[in-house]
Amino acid sequence: MNKESVSTLVVSILTVGSVMCTTKSGGGGRDTAGTSDDSGYVDACESSADCGDDQTCVDGVCVTDGALRFTLQWDDQTDLDLYVTTPAGNTISYSNRSADGGRLDVDDTRGGPNSVENIHFNEDLASGPYEYWVNNYDNNSASWRLSVHVDGSEVAAVSDSFRPEDSDSEHFTFEY
Fold first, then answer.
1. Pairing between strand 61-64 and 55-58?
2. How many whole angstroms separate alpha carbon 34 and alpha carbon 21?
3. Long-range contact set of residues 18-24: C-beta below 8 Å, sequence gap at least 24
4. Strand pairing partners for 23?
5. DSSP code of 19?
6. CA-CA distance, 168 to 68, in Å (whole number)?
7. How far apart are CA 153 and CA 30, in angstroms?
8. pLDDT of 153-162, one tens digit each?
9. Residue 41: pLDDT band by 50, 70, 90 thresholds?
10. Comparing C-alpha atoms, which of 106, 97, 98 is closest to residue 42?
11. Per residue in 116-157, pLDDT tens?
12. What dihedral do alpha carbons 29, 34, 38, 41 form, nearest 10°?
């Protein structure tokens, strides 16, 4: 790295879940200090080509794709939480990050532009109903979008908003 690159380097510290994420950007684009695994970092991206083989780019964040994926997106400065209950009755969220082959790999607790939460399932997931919803953790106004993807293709989506007095969205069901 030359002196010019050093002088234009910008480092942002983000909180994703209970871990700290470092995203670096400078003269030529974005790169990151890690991956979206348990290392404590998420990868920043401009397109899915910037992400790993089993990942896709959503609003500038690499998320794990999987056979089944639930992705929450919002831009308001608030903490929203994604919940998914599996056919076995186990719920995945910030307080229980994995169950029944599913895993919360991105948990944004700060909000703001391009906020993302993501729960993905591997190929060994159970067939049956998956219940999913959004929790308004901070009880602030917020607009959000929640999408369901099977093998990388979006198959369902809902957009809605919270008022400060709202705690949970409607509960939705996806039959896998």
1. antiparallel
2. 8
3. 18/94, 18/107, 18/109
4. 12, 32
5. E
6. 22
7. 26
8. 999 999 999 9
9. low
10. 106
11. 999 999 988 999 999 999 999 999 999 999 999 999 999 999
12. -50
Q: Which residue has the tokens 């990388």?
A: 152
Structure-block tokens of residue 32: 């990151």
Could you tell me which of 81, 135, 152 has the C-alpha nearest to residue 110? Answer: 81
Three-class SS of the chain = CCHHHHHHCEEEEEEECCEEEEEEEECCEEEECCCCCCCCCCCECCCHHHCCCCEEEECCEEEECCCEEEEEEECCCCCEEEEEECCCCCEEECCECEECCEEEEECECCCCCCEEEEEEECCCCCCCEEEEEEEECCCCCEEEEEEEEECCEEEEEEEEEECCCCCECCCEEEEC
The region of weakest confidence among 3-7, 48-52, 118-122, 145-149 is 3-7
Pair of tokens at residue 138: 């901070």
Position 123 scores a pLDDT of 83
Token match 């995945």: residue? 92
Residue type present at position 26? G
* φ, ψ for residue 3, nearest 5 deg: -60, -40
